[in-house]
Amino acid sequence: MALFLGIDSGTQSTKAIALDLDTGRVIAEARAPHTLIPGLPAGHLEQHPAEWTAALDTVIGEVAAKIDRTRVRGIGVSGQQHGFVPLDAHGGVIRPAKLWCDTSTTKECALLTKKLGGTKAVIRTAGLPFLPGYTAPKILWLKRHEPANYRKLRHVLLPHDYLNFHLTGNYFMESGDASGTALMDVRKRTWSVKVINAIDKNLADWLPPLSGSHEAAGTLRPELARKYGFPPDVVVSAGGGDNMMGAIGTGNVTPGVVSASLGTSGTIFAYCQKAVVDPQGEIAAFCSSTGGWLPLLCTMNVTLVTEQFRALFGWDHAALDAAVAGATPGAGGLSLLPYFDGERTPNLPRGTGVLAGLNRTTLSSANLARAALEGVTLNMNYGLRRLTALGIKPREIRLTGGGARSAAWRQLMADVFGVPVVAMVEDEGAALGGALQAAWCVALREGRKAKLTDFTAGTVALDERTRCTPAAKNRALYRGLQAKHDELSRTLRPFFG
After folding, report:
1. Looking at residue 207, what is its pLDDT?
2. Domain residue spans in the chain?
3. Environment class of residue 35 by beta-carbon count within 10 Å: exposed (0-12), middle (13-18) or buried (19+)?
4. Rounded to whole angstroms, how far apart are CA atoms 23 and 449?
5. Which CATH class is domain 3-249?
6. Can you tell me the distance from the alpha carbon of 63 to that of 17, in angstroms, rounded to the nearest whole number?
7. What is the pTM of this model?
8. Please, which pLDDT band fits residue 402 given cuts at 50, 70 and 90?
9. Do the Cβ atoms of 189 and 287 come closer than 8 Å?
């Protein structure tokens, strides 16, 4: 008779679900938006953490109103990765959080890389290179650009950790989300003394100890339990980054499963029982939030791009889907490099969008929409091929996130990726992952010898109505377009600055 809440705090909104563990069904949902801070210089993307906590309180309150509150046993929080939440000695937010998509730290990446002896040395030390999206260069950026704020720094948290702090009052960090800071040795699941000292030796005192993903961040603060009408002993699990929680929510907790998350950014990832370190640094050697590892490719521009094209033509999502389905594969010869916010894979923080192939015949709304979806999908496939080269061989790809709802896009992905794709019954994979992790955590605290698969096996389900298999003719077309896409990207990189 237990209920578990899953929270997913993303770039654009916070979602909450209530999972009835007895039936394996989501019985309530809620969503609340939050916004980016407007008017910042190019490359700077920030949010006020107070917006996250306000949205969190809203969605928990809305879900609580739809369920039997007395049955709630646990809460699991998923959050956007890499964000830097700087806190003072009293737990107060010093300045707005710099986000995963903030690319203002390219100089800091270069400085840290040089200090540790070059990119290969960094990968040997940490398992992954310094990229502008990661947290480590953001901390150095604060030290170099806002010394007065840096002098106040006493606690470093990631976005989901900050929400856990709001819920429990505890400073807590687990290895999955922490592996995206570039402050860890991901092979050993420990903080890297070399990386920390390259920024500031005092930083070691400002990071929480690393905890296991099966552990609890704490219990819900009494005043919040009373506010929501929950029992006084509700457990808040470790939680994790949105990709780590999305892996749990798609059943990606054993070897052989590959998932893709299609949100503002796009990620493809797979569970492994040992660290998968890319010597070229293009695939992130992350830890999972299950005790394993989660090699992952990330592109920064997915629905970020498609939503702008949809808004440009004033379409709803059904109209966008129809336009894409009605256009010829290949968009009549249009090609889009979708680097609207720079890019992470390939690593082009100063990249910009490029539309090639425009003429009087190709210039149509349908072709532009098709080129947008093809561009972001070919860009994801650039990384997928690297993931494959490192030994990850997908037989199918499980889809989660907003983009998974589009039938035209699912078929396009199957044709580009060259394997079947299928969406999930519950498309809020990260929120579902949070609820499942919370159930696992509570079971372990009660002394049961539970495995996470005990909970995913009875809950995570594929929506077979959405399955798409590659069309042979289109597959051949997209292999050729992939080569052109990659060549266009390589040719134009010197112009990105």
Report:
1. 98
2. 3-249, 258-423+467-496
3. exposed
4. 21
5. alpha beta
6. 7
7. 0.92
8. confident
9. yes
Fold agreement (3-249, 258-423+467-496): yes
Alpha helices in 349-428 (DSSP H): 365-389, 407-417
Residue 304 CA to residue 380 CA, distance in Å, equals 14
**pLDDT tens digits for 90-126?**
999 999 999 999 999 999 999 999 999 999 999 999 9
Answer yes or no: is pLDDT of 137 > 80.
yes
The structure tokens 């916010």 sit at 341
CB–CB of 6/440 below 8 Å? no
Q: Determine contact, residues 222/232, Cβ cutoff 8 Å.
A: yes
- C-alpha angle with apex 224: 219 to 230, nearest 5 degrees? 75
Whether residue 54 is predicted with pLDDT greater than 90 in this model: the reply is yes
The answer to whether the beta carbons of residues 392 and 295 sit under 8 Å apart is yes
Q: How far apart are CA 289 and CA 159, in angstroms?
A: 15
Residue 348 backbone phi and psi in degrees, to 5: -135, 70
Cis peptide before 346 (omega within 30 of 0): yes
Residue 428 predicted with pLDDT over 90? no
DSSP 8-state code for residue 39: T
Q: Has domain 258-423+467-496 been given CATH number 3.30.420.40? A: yes
Report the catalytic residues.
242
CA 43, distance to chain mean position in Å, is: 19
- For the chain, the residue count is 497
